[in-house]
Amino acid sequence: MKLKRAIERELEIIGEAINRIIKKEPSMIDRIEDAQNIVGLRNQVIHAYDNVSDENIWAIVINHLPQLKKDVSGLLKDKF
Predict the structure, then answer these.
(1) Cβ count near 16 (within 10 Å)
(2) Dist CA 48 CA 37 (whole Å)
(3) Are the beta carbons of 70 and 17 closer than 8 angstroms?
(4) Per-residue pLDDT tens for 49-67?
């Protein structure tokens, strides 16, 4: 249970960071695949905790975090 909660907390932080990036630079929404879904997940984890399944969280970690890492790495390369 601790591991699940820790992962969910990290996903909340990622979602909040993406939300702030989009608010500051709306054009970034096109450079981060699934940006709206990431923010939506953050909102779901925070506000509808009882509706977040373990399978959904695991699928996100396995299937979507690698792409997000690529997107963010690309943004950092462009910036610096």
Answers:
(1) 15
(2) 15
(3) no
(4) 778 888 989 999 999 999 9
Contact predicate 32/38, CB 8 Å: yes
DSSP 80: -
**Residue 20: domain span:** 2-79
**Three-state DSSP class for residue 1:** coil
Count CB atoms within 10 A of the CB of residue 46.
15
Q: Record the pTM.
A: 0.85
Give dist(CA 16, CA 45) in Å, integer.
11
Query: How many domains are there within the chain?
Result: 1
CA 8 – CA 49 distance, rounded (Å): 10
- Quote the Cα angle for 1-54-36, to 5°: 120
